[in-house]
Amino acid sequence: MSNCEIIAVHGGACAKFDASLAEDCRFACGTGTVENALTDLERIEKFNCGFGSHLTIDQEVECEASYMSSKNLSFGAVGAISNVFHPSRVARHLAHSNWWKQRRLLHPLILVGRGAEKYAVKNDFPTCTPEELVSKAAKESFEKYLHRMLHPYDTHDTVGAISINTNTMNSESGTSSGGIVLKHSGRLGHSCVYGSGTWSERRQYEEPFDQVSERTISICSTGHGESLVKADFCRGIATRVLDDEEGIMYSEIIREFIHEKMEHGSRYGGIALIADKFKDRMSLEFLIFHNCRYLPAAVRCRDNQIRVFESQFDPDQCTTDPKCVIESFIM
Question: Cβ atoms within 10 A of the Cβ of 32, count?
Fold first, then answer.
C-alpha cells in the first residue's frame, strides 16, 4: 500500500476486553484496502462477520455488508445472505457494477436473500453451504443467549474499515456483520441502510482569491442497528462535519450529534478519518467513539506504520452527557 492511502479498521463494539482483537485489526490494516481488510476479518472466527457470524433465532447465518466510495457517492450492500464467504466483496462489486447502466436500468443499492446470493454466483464470488459459515463459537453463543433472551447481549458487533487517499482526497468505507445474536430471520441491520452503517464524502469549498479547499470524511459504525438507522448515524455525523465552517472540534461535533440523535440505552460506536486540505497543507485526524466496554481498532498512517487503539469505556466512571468516550488523534 502506498503511503498516500490511510486505512483504519475496527473489530466491532465489544462488552469485554480482548487484546487479540486489536492485533487482528493491526493485521487487517496491513492488507492495503477496505475490501481486503474486511475480507481478512470475515475469515477470523472471533469476529461477527462472514465465518463466525451470529446465528438467527432459527440457527442460521444471515450476513450483511456494505461499501461506499466518495466517488459519485457510490454505494452497495447485501443482506440476509447465507452462502458467500465474503459478503463485503459482493457489496463493493455491486457499488461499482456498470451492468445496469449499460442496459439503461435502475442500479440497485441493496440486494438481499436469494437475489444477493444469485448475484454472487453470477459474478463468480466464492460460495459455500450455509453450514460452512457456522462456527463453533457461534453455536455456543446461540445456546447461551437462547436461555437469556431478556438479558443484555455481551457479544461482538459489526466490523468496519475506512480509508482516505491523501493525494486524490477520495475515501472509502465498508462494514460486514452477522447481525445481533438471535435476530429474526430476514432482519436487516444498519450495515445495509444507506447512510447508517457507512459514509464517505469529499467536498470542495471556495476560499478568498479564487482558492479552493477540500475536506473528506470516511466513517463506519457498529452497535444496535435499529437505533443507528433511526439516527441516520454515519451520514448525520458526516454532514455536520462537512457543513462546519466555524472550526468546531470534530470530537465536539460527534458528541453533540450523539446527544441529540441516539436513543437512550442504545449501544453504538464508530471510527472516522477526516482530511482537510488547502494548497499544500494537509491535516488528517482519526477519531474513535463509542459507549461499549471495548472497541479495538488500528490505523495505518502516512509513514506506513500501524498504530493500535484499545479504546475502553466504563460507564460507571463517566460523568459526561452523553455517557461515551470520544478520542481524537492527529495522523
Answer: 15
